[in-house]
Amino acid sequence: MNDSTRKASLTDRQRRFVEEYLVDVNAGAAALRAGYAAKSAGSVGPRLKNLPHVRAAIEAAMAERSRRLGITQ
Fold first, then answer.
1. Would you say 3 and 60 are in contact if contact means Cβ atoms under 8 Å apart?
2. Is the whole-model pTM more than 0.70?
3. Nearest to residue 45, comparing CAs of 56, 29, 57?
4. Neighbour count for residue 14 (Cβ, 10 Å)
5. What is the rounded distance in angstroms from the CA atom of residue 2 to the CA atom of residue 36?
6. Per-residue confidence of the chain (73 residues) as pLDDT tens digits?
7. Is the CB of residue 18 less than 8 Å from the CB of residue 51?
8. Alpha-carbon torsion (4, 1, 50, 10), positive or negative
9. Helix (H) or strand (E) holding 14
């Protein structure tokens, strides 16, 4: 799946979740900031993070950030 296909398969809130997840790598907080209900963000976040297309988007965004910043192990 290429980058544009991966992005197309995410909903707007899932895309926002991916962006917010990169801030602090906290799925619950990212879900809350992405617009999910405070009452359920703690359980929605980890569930979202484990969806294959969301996980792929997170991994791609992290790889791009590492590449851009020149971070290696």
1. yes
2. yes
3. 29
4. 18
5. 27
6. 455 444 558 999 999 999 999 999 999 999 999 999 999 999 999 999 999 999 999 999 999 998 998 877 6
7. no
8. positive
9. helix 12-24
Chain position carrying tokens 């590449």: 67
Q: Is 30 in contact with 17 (CB distance < 8 Å)?
A: yes
Alpha-carbon gap, residue 65 to 59, rounded angstroms: 10
Tokens 């590492």 correspond to 66
The Cα 4–Cα 72 span in angstroms is 25
Three-state SS across 30-55?
Answer: HHHHCCCCCCCHHHHHHHHHCCHHHH
Query: Quick one: CA dihedral 26, 28, 32, 38, positive or negative?
Result: negative
Tokens of 5: 């296909």
